[in-house]
Amino acid sequence: MTINILISDPLSEDGIYPLRQEKELDLNIVSNTGLSPAELKGIIKDFDVLLVRSQTKVTREIIEAADNLKLIGRAGVGVDNIDLEAATEKGIIVVNAPDGNTNSAAEHTTAMIMALARHIPHAHMSLQEGRWDRKKFVGVELKNKTLGVVGFGRIGQEVAHRAKGNRMNVIAYDPFLTAEKAEKAGVAYGSVEDVAKVADFITVHTPLLDSTRHMINEDIFKIMKDDVRIINCARGGIIDEDALYAAIESGKVAGAALDVMEEEPFVGHKLLDLPQVIATPHLGASTIEAQESVAVDVSNDILSYFKFGSVLNPVNMPSVPKDMVAKVEPFFDLGYKIGNLVSHLTDEAINEINIYYSGDLANFDVRPLTNNTVKGILTRNLGNHVNNVNARYLAERNDIKVNEHKSTRAKAFLNSITVELVTDHTTHKIKGTLLAGLGARIVQVNDYVVDIVPDGHILMIRHTDKPGAIGLVGTLLADQNINIATMQVGRTSEGGDAIMVLSVDYAVENVDFLKQQKNIFDVKAINL
Ligand SMILES: NC(=O)C1=CN([C@@H]2O[C@H](COP(=O)(O)OP(=O)(O)OC[C@H]3O[C@@H](n4cnc5c(N)ncnc54)[C@H](O)[C@@H]3O)[C@@H](O)[C@H]2O)C=CC1
Ligand SMILES: O=C(O)C(=O)COP(=O)(O)O
């Protein structure tokens, strides 16, 4: 059988040599870059594999037309240009190349920090235009300045390492950053607000996820130091571009270096008109070395998939051994949902995940179930990148211990899963069960006994047990036209800490109106 491979973005020819020299498989490699979405949609049904970088938008529409597609290879890190949900639904595995361009992206970020500090692009242009202007381009030193790194993954850590070489102090924020890890890396750590308050330069290195979209916004710009400089070599959309524009215009932000923007190509973008802005056309990974490396990695995964049915860098595609399906599959969704819910109870870095299986369930090999539960926990911060195959690996990489505990002794329920998250300062847990004929239920949140259907849009509100608290929440939600479907209230003691868990009819985008209330100390909107 011929395997038809379409390469729709420019890839390193040296990098795809594993495909070119393949003898065992019959590969037909077609390079066709610069296709319009309509053109791609028109031809995609003829291909088994699609190989892309960031330009090709692999939308649901394309995937739905891709009747023979088995694998999408992303020669790079970010998969925000691929509709992962649509691919998974259609059974198409997505692989990426997470390590191959780390160094290049970190070097580019470092170059941007320096170019920004010393006005190199503008000074060069001014010389080209025939001027010898030395006064206009007085810069600032990096030495003894503080670099804020938001997103301390592969690239963030490499950038921090280089900044220390330039004698900068580094403060980082990442939900997975613990005191121990920060100390090992020689950086300070804190919340995104802590970073904003003290940094002279702020560079973002998170993926683009719902939780990171516009995380650098008007409110965050307000608390930054005057004359701060901003760098984005990760993804357009992490920084709110209108807020950045306003912050530059107002004089708060002294400069910005941008490799990416929300819409690309970004020729003609209004930020480019500001003299404080320098920019490159998404060049972070554009080096000979990185391009070769990412193309080799995806090529090898393509071969591995067609020869052995396994891949090294899957981004989606859970897999469950067949004999397990009937026994533990009903619990998969429950494990994921408990994991996802409990992850919203803390913003601190997680050190340990304890998963307690009790009742019948403890008789089975629950490892795939554990993977799905860990996936639910990590998804909050790592997004769709986490799947059953890589969840444990990602936990390990983030120094999170995962422990399974089993007890066949059934207590109040025939079977139950309890997930406990341990951080430096707190422990949070959620317990769930499957009730015969009724389906999944959350029966305990920390010390509160509850009865919640884990589905749809959930608001978890932690508050002080005071008369009127429940009525107030009802009224505030009604004012926003948000209908409450069910509501559960639990408390530890009269007048003590309490919790309200509400299911509402629509996703609640902004919960500030609830957070501002005196007796409410935490609000989480969760979509399951
Ligand atoms: N400009 C370019 O050409 C390139 C851009 N990139 C972008 O850089 C991003 C980061 O790449 P890597 O470091 O390899 O990924 P990574 O997965 O190693 O690191 C991402 C980090 O962001 C953290 N994170 C997630 N949500 C967060 C939040 N709300 N606040 C703070 N941190 C959060 C994660 O915990 C993780 O540690 C990619 O997703 C990609 O979009 C990557 C390569 C080249
Ligand atoms: O790897 C990534 O996430 C990148 O942004 C690199 O994008 P590119 O492959 O150069 O279009």
Automatic annotation (TrEMBL):
UniProt xrefs under InterPro entries: ACT-like_dom_sf (IPR045865), ACT_dom (IPR002912), ASB_dom_sf (IPR029009), D-isomer_2_OHA_DH_cat_dom (IPR006139), D-isomer_DH_CS (IPR029753), D-isomer_DH_CS1 (IPR029752), D-isomer_DH_NAD-bd (IPR006140), NAD(P)-bd_dom_sf (IPR036291)
Domain of life: Bacteria
Sections of the chain in a coiled coil: none
Pfam families: 2-Hacid_dh (PF00389), 2-Hacid_dh_C (PF02826), ACT (PF01842), PGDH_inter (PF19304)
Its EC number(s): 1.1.1.95
Keyword Signal attached: no
Role noted for this protein: Catalyzes the reversible oxidation of 3-phospho-D-glycerate to 3-phosphonooxypyruvate, the first step of the phosphorylated L-serine biosynthesis pathway. Also catalyzes the reversible oxidation of 2-hydroxyglutarate to 2-oxoglutarate.
Glycoprotein as UniProt keyword: no
Organism taxonomic ancestry: Bacteria, Bacillati, Bacillota, Bacilli, Bacillales
Stated family: Belongs to the D-isomer specific 2-hydroxyacid dehydrogenase family.
Catalytic function, reaction form: (2R)-3-phosphoglycerate + NAD(+) = 3-phosphooxypyruvate + NADH + H(+); (R)-2-hydroxyglutarate + NAD(+) = 2-oxoglutarate + NADH + H(+)
GO biological process: L-serine biosynthetic process
Enzyme class: oxidoreductase
Pathway note: Amino-acid biosynthesis; L-serine biosynthesis; L-serine from 3-phospho-D-glycerate: step 1/3
Domain ACT: 458-528
Organism name: Kurthia zopfii
Keywords annotated in UniProt: Amino-acid biosynthesis, NAD, Oxidoreductase, Serine biosynthesis
Protein name in UniProt: D-3-phosphoglycerate dehydrogenase
Molecular-function GO terms, alphabetical: NAD binding; phosphoglycerate dehydrogenase activity
